[in-house]
Structures are given as C-alpha cells and as structure tokens.
Amino acid sequence: MSDVSIEKTQILQKYLDLDQRGRVIAEYIWIDGTGHLRSKGRTLKKAITSLDQLPEWNFDGSSTNQAPGSDSDIYLKPCAYYPDPFRRGDNIVVLAECYNNDGTPNKFNHRHEAAKLFAAHKDEEIWFGLEQEYTLFDMYDGVYGWPKGGYPAPQGPYYCGVGAGKVYARDVIEAHYRACLYAGIELSGINAEVMPSQWEFQVGPCTGIDMGDQLWVARYFLHRVAEEFGVKISFHPKPLKEGDWNGAGCHTNVSTKNMRAPGGMKYIDSAIEKLSKRHAEHIRLYGADNEQRLTGRHETASMTNFSAGVANRGASIRIPRSVAKEGYGYFEDRRPASNIDPYLVTGIMCETVCGAIENADMSKEFDRESS
Q1: Contacts within 8 Å (CB) and 24+ apart, 274-283
Q2: pLDDT digits over 135-187, tens only?
C-alpha cells in the first residue's frame, strides 16, 4: 500500500503544465499566532510587476490564534513577493503582514516594529546572515532515517558528511536549495549538521528587514518541499532532550558598514559591550525552549552568562579568527534558537547596536505578544 503522506508529484505535473489562460496564482503566506506559517492562494488577472499591484486580503484570525471569534477578520498587507518555485511561470508567493481591522498591527506582527528601526538606521547599512538549523522527522515523529526504537552511531561522522549511513534525506535538501535559488532567496549555502538528520541552510547577507522576509520565505519553501516527500520539519532548539545530541540554533551574523571597513574591530568590540549589557532582553526574544539548548554543552554558551571570544563556539558571541586577524568584518551571535522570529532577533540587534528610537522598543514585543 502506498504512503498517503507522499504527494503524487508525477500525476500532478500534467496539471501544472496546463495553460492558465493569462491568470496568475498568488500564494499569500503569513505568520500565525503560534509562530508557524499559514498560506492560501488567490487568482489574479495579470502578472505582477510591483508590490503596489497586489491587493490586500483577509482571513479568519480565530482559526490561527490571532483574533477572537467575535471579531475574527485579520487583514493581509503584502510586503514582499517572490517567484513561485512550485507553480512556476508568472505565479508568485506573497509574504504579508497581519493587521487588525482598526488598522493596527496584529500583536504577532513583529515585522512592523523592526521595520521602523531599520528605516531609522538605514545609514548604518546593517547586514545579517542567518544560519538556520532544523531537524527532519518521519510521519510517525521518529527522527528521519534513525533505527526504529534505537539510535544511530554517536555524533562525529555526520557534520558535512558524505555517504550512506552518514547523510539522510539529501533529496529534500537539494530540492529546497533549488527552490530558494529559483525564487531569488539569498541562500548562500547548506550543510549537514552534527546530529544525524539535522541540516542547516544559510541566508544572507541581507540588509535590514529583508533578512527576516527572506528567512520566513525560505522556511515556507522548506515545509512545502518536505511535504512532497512525506517529511516533517522541526525548528525546536532541542528536538531530543535525552542523549548526547546537539541542539539546533539560528546563529546570527551581524555587521554595519563601519565594522566592515578597515579599523572596524573597534566598532565590533563596542557592539559586543552593548550586547553584554542587554543579555537578558535578548535571551527573551531568542526563541522558545532555548534554555534546553543553551546549557554550556554541545557548542553552546550557558544562558545565564554572557561571553565572547575569538573562534570560540562555546561563547555567546564568536569573533571569527579571520576578523580578529584582519581587524574588521563581522561577529556571530550564537545564542538565538532555531525557532526564532527573525524580525525579533534582527530588530533587537539593530536597536542594541545602533541605538533605540522613539515609539519602537523590541524588548516589549515579547510582552505585547504574551498579553
């Protein structure tokens, strides 16, 4: 009997090849009230060439934990769009922000506040690169490819591994890679991670708000690709709580134009000093269940202490050896978990490094969401 969880892509193909008679399908995607992605499709009458041609839309927020049933309409305002690697042609994927019916941003819309900060500090030309780790599971919630009821050999041969028994689901990873490149995502690389069936893709460098946009869309593509293979994607920072297995993070690489110029090391040191004074505020926005990962073991720093060091993967902030040698470049914040909202992380990073602005406070976004 065939696995009903795997899509019949060969059968589907003959329908994907049908003429759409000039119509375009726009798949609107958004972040719901639990930090997961949702989407629905809409037919448009012509190809889209600019963001302002995309209509606003709405959905039932009571079904996504974003509104009560008595006042359930939540509005989707397009903020970016990309070629659709699944439908192809002129079809697109539309990333949208969520707004309440009174015109205010929905409390789970963290993009709105982050965008204010990036606009205010645009002269800083802040760049980000995010390293998204994730874990593959089968349809029965077992780690993909692991022995049923058992464990594979200990960690060691899997990181950047090659060969059967070392690498799992490369077909899923390759398909996702191509989908991102087709859509114009700045996907700069991939690799198998330390725990078997754990992978990573890197997005960036991207400037300002574009970083959060591209990571969310890359995550959407990953879920869509894995859906076709009957594989589940987990962004939990510690998918296996028992055993000597690594967790999953979203290491955040940061630089401003001053950091990237000769002599930039003094600006990197200044940024790290600022980060040390707001460690608690950052940790609150660095992902749910991150305390299970930030234990001081498995290439992490302890959540309770801030630290920094050159080439030290056990520190909160790592300065690459090449940066210390050349005296300019970027730094890596290793604290963020794999399940972060990138708008929160890049937003508070900009706020801490570049300065707060009036009417925007990223550290209060957690409280707003929790209220």
Answers
A1: 274/352, 274/353, 275/306, 275/316, 275/317, 275/333, 275/352, 275/353, 276/306, 276/308, 278/348, 278/352, 278/363, 279/306, 279/316, 281/348, 281/352, 281/363, 282/333, 282/335, 282/348, 282/349, 282/352, 283/335
A2: 999 999 999 999 998 899 999 999 999 999 999 999 999 999 999 999 999 99
Strands 331-333 and 250-255: antiparallel
Structure tokens at 133: 């780790």
pLDDT of residue 322: 97
- Would the pLDDT of 2 be above 70? no
Exposure class string for 236-267: b at 16+ Cβ within 10 A, else e: bbbbbeeeebbbbbbbbbbbbebbbeeebbeb
Q: Position 307: which residue type?
A: S
Distance between CA 222 and CA 225 in Å, rounded? 5
Q: Please count the other Cβ atoms lying within 10 Å of the Cβ belonging to residue 158.
A: 21
Total residues belonging to the chain: 371
**Which of 239, 332, 253, 336 shows the shortest CA–CA distance to 287?**
336
Q: How far apart are CA 346 and CA 257, in angstroms?
A: 16
Q: What digits encode the pLDDT tens for the residues 300-311? A: 999 999 999 999
Beta 250-255 vs 24-31: how paired, if at all? unpaired
* Residue tagged 């606003």 (tokens): 56
Strand partners, 142: none
Distances (CA, A) of 141 to 104, 135, 144, 149, 369: 38, 11, 8, 12, 29
- Bond before 205 cis per omega within 30 degrees: yes
Which residues are 136's β-sheet partners? Answer: 233
